[in-house]
Amino acid sequence: MSPRNRRTAAAGAAAPAGIHAERVIQLPAPQPYPSRTDIAFPFHVDSRGRTAGTDYDGHVRDMIEQLLFTSPGERVMRPDFGCGLLDLVFAPNSPELASALQLSVQAALQRWLGDVIEVDALDVVSEENVVRVHLAYTVRRTGTRRTDVFEGSGGAA
Question: What does residue 18 show for φ and ψ, rounded to 5 degrees?
């Protein structure tokens, strides 16, 4: 018996002599992206005593927060990472400063997260010693539209 006949015979198909019958097995459609859990930022422990996790959209939000509040030169292996948002918190408030902040944030988001998110709307507000970033974006992988407010003050990141 040839290997092909053994396969069809093992599959339980009865084929007349000289005709090769094959069984077609239909597999379930593959999911475009498997579900995943990422480590939450900032790192903390959940109610079960394990490392806290977050879904993909939450992970993207965490990445945006890290990008906004990291100053260039702060990361050893990536000295050009960040946008320096908190460096200008105590600068005199003016329309020029607001424009510079908005341009800096837009450029950093495009450079570091351009393949992850699409920025729909961005507004940077500087008040005394607080900077607020109002960001509306779409997560490219999931198609989820989100609107988040990120706030940083001069004393803490």
Answer: 90, -10
